[in-house]
Specification:
Blueprint (H helix, E strand, L loop, with lengths): L8 E2 L12 H19 L9 H11 L6 E4 L2 H12 L4 E6 L3 H9 L3 E8 L2 E2 L1 H10 L5 E4 L13 H14 L3 E4 L15 H4 L6 E6 L11 E4 L2 H15 L4 H12 L3 H26 L4 E2 L7 E5 L6 H7 L3 E2 L1 E2 L9 E5 L5 H14 L1
Parallel strand pairs: 1-12, 3-4, 3-6, 6-7, 7-8
Antiparallel strand pairs: 2-9, 4-5, 8-9, 10-11, 11-14, 13-14
């Protein structure tokens, strides 16, 4: 008798589910900006990005528009920043941390030094030791809110401690905040950028990939004045012009008042998925430890002590996830993304994972 092959359920994809994407609204916005100003946005433009969107984002952060750089997704901005600041140097990173920046740093000949995080974020004593050992570190890279991969959020006290330690050592901070608005419960915390004292240098980065659409490829950086001009030149040298159509479409989407209602809708869809995963973990893996994020895309799962996540995922049938070691985590850790799959698939996938464990 022929066996039916299981359809794979992916907890590996840290992307929004298709029903999170406001397709019709974005299509209408794209059509409107093309008809209104197509000859501008279909041509070459400034490497700094679409002017009206830069002005809007500058207003959000209370800075001059000249400090805002729009990039083809925030990861493109990280590449430009690493090329500018990190060649042959050392960057301080959280342990665990997002794996893509680690790969990009290696490409520019930079090394990274890990700083331990716990449930409240970066451990101040660990950061103090790292800053003492690496006094010339190019910057500290942190994802303080709903971190990728752990889903953890840095507490307010820890944010202040991190800023104080960075100020004492003169170390720049790169705050990566793509998930901050993807909040399901709890009170929002001020960003490091907003909390920073005059003696701090904090670069803030985010994107519209999680709040509007990843395919539009619109990210942004709020930079110190002395970095804005050279990074704009680097952007021009790298890709000549940004994707002005995507940037203009996002601007129109916000201008029409679509952003906040869409964010509320998206957060509702993702909360349902987060809740489904937490319930499934309680049902099928009671006794293990995992993060309980108030927002974002990810849950960090710790398998039993001594277990090897690579072996577990290797024998898991019909479910995929990402090894914690890819992010610098321990061999018994796994990143589970709940953003893409349906609540029904989440329960089935966790049950399959439990069988492999």
């Amino acid at each position: 008798m022929a066996t039916t092959e299981l359809e794979t359920i992916s907890f590996a994809r840290g992307v929004p589910a298709p029903d999170c994407l406001p397709v019709e609204e974005l299509a209408d916005c794209a059509r409107a900006v093309l008809l209104e100003d197509g000859k501008t946005i279909l041509s070459y433009g400034s490497g700094a990005g679409y002017g009206p969107l830069r002005e809007l984002i500058a207003g959000w952060h209370g800075v001059d528009p000249g400090r805002v750089l729009l990039t083809n997704g925030s990861l493109q901005g990280f590449v430009l920043l690493a090329q500018q600041l990190a060649r042959g140097g050392t960057i301080l990173v959280e342990d665990p941390t997002y794996d893509r920046p680690l790969k990009l740093l290696a490409q520019v000949g930079a090394s990274s030094r890990s700083v331990t995080i716990d449930d409240d974020g970066i451990v101040p004593a660990e950061l103090a030791d790292a800053l003492e050992a690496e006094p010339n570190a190019a910057f500290l890279y942190t994802i303080p809110t709903f971190q990728n991969p752990s889903g953890l959020t840095m507490s307010l006290d820890r944010r202040r401690a991190v800023l104080e330690l960075a100020a004492q050592s003169g170390t720049m901070i790169l705050e990566d905040d793509p998930y901050g608005l993807i909040r399901f419960e709890g009170e929002p915390l001020p960003s490091l950028f907003d909390l920073a004292a005059p003696e701090n240098t904090v670069i803030y980065s985010s994107s519209f990939s999680k709040t509007v659409s990843p395919g539009l490829r619109v990210g942004w950086f709020v930079l110190p004045e002395e970095l804005a001009a050279p990074l704009t030149v680097a952007a021009n040298d790298t890709y000549i012009t940004p994707v002005l159509l995507g940037e203009a479409t996002v601007h129109e989407f916000i201008r029409r008042g679509n952003f906040e209602p869409n964010l509320k809708r998206v957060n509702g869809l993702l909360k349902e998925r987060r809740d489904a995963m937490l319930s499934a973990l309680e049902r099928h893996l009671s006794g293990l430890r995992w993060s309980r994020p108030e927002g974002g895309y990810f849950i960090w799962l710790e398998l039993p002590a001594g277990a090897n996540a690579k072996d577990v995922l290797g024998r898991a049938k019909g479910v995929t996830a990402v090894l914690g070691t890819d992010f610098g985590g321990a061999p018994n850790t796994v990143r589970l993304a709940f953003s893409f799959v349906s609540p029904e698939e989440i329960d089935a996938g966790v049950e399959r994972l439990a069988a492999a464990i």
